[in-house]
Inverse folding.
């Protein structure tokens, strides 16, 4: 059963998501050669605190492990859940995925964006563009009356015509009072499959796409997921509310115009 948010829940989702978007947006311009991923963590931690929110990543439990940072910063072949480090110095040509998940007033906002440290290779620039487009197409498929598989298929088909590997080991998800609620929203699947979309659902739609094959593995730190062939990987994510008037992106950056998918 996919939870449906009531009026109050939607208001709280809006607030949490606006904050998550604000934090993510504040980190993007910091990404440049010479800084470390720990610098981004420190800025993210401070901004989350300034807003009076709480990182949903810090202390997040997976098996017996707890995630040790307030942000996830994944560089190049790192797909997701990269742990910020003083030792990871960014260089020209790197791509840096910033993933911000925070809780405010009992509700969670989740969003991610991959920033290039310019200049990057044209092949990698294309990977970023296509993954961003795939997120847009996935959001556009999140129409009331459609099914979850319509989102999945829109993302998969756009990425695969470009020959990219769509990650299968991690998926998008419902989000609300918990970071991960039903349903799972794979970035691959058949049109017309899965549960039907109704108004008031909130989804984290998040294509994770590799320049090479789709296989991934987790490093010995227990968190960092990398592409098995070590090819660069992109990750873009929004939290979206489904409405009768169409999907509404709740994690639009403050600078962006109010847009509908
Ligand atoms: N957006 C990531 C997810 O949905 C954030 C995970 S937080 C972490 O899985 F603690 F697991 F890193
Ligand atoms: Co997510």
């Amino acid at each position: 059963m996919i939870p449906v948010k009531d009026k109050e829940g939607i208001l709280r989702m809006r607030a949490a998501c606006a904050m998550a978007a604000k934090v993510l947006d504040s980190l993007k311009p910091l990404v440049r050669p010479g800084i470390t991923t720990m610098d981004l963590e420190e800025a993210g931690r401070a901004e989350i605190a300034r807003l009076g929110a709480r990182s949903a990543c810090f202390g997040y439990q997976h098996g017996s492990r707890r995630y040790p940072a307030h942000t996830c910063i994944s560089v190049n072949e790192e797909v997701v859940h990269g742990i910020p480090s003083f030792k990871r110095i960014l260089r020209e040509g790197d791509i840096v995925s910033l993933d911000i998940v925070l809780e405010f007033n009992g509700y969670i906002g989740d969003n991610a964006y991959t920033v290039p440290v310019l200049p990057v290779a044209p092949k990698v620039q294309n990977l970023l563009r296509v993954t961003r487009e795939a997120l847009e197409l996935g959001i556009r498929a999140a129409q009331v009356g459609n099914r979850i598989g319509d989102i999945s298929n829109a993302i998969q088909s756009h990425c695969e015509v470009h020959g990219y590997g769509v990650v299968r080991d991690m998926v998008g998800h419902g989000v609300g009072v918990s970071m991960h609620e039903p349903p799972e929203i794979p970035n691959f699947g058949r049109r017309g499959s899965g549960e039907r979309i109704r108004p008031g659902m909130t989804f984290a739609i998040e294509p994770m796409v590799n320049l090479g094959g789709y296989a991934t593995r987790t490093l010995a730190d227990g968190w960092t997921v990398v592409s098995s062939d070590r090819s660069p990987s992109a990750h873009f994510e929004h939290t979206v509310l489904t409405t009768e008037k169409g999907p509404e992106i709740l994690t639009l950056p403050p600078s962006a115009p109010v847009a509908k998918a």
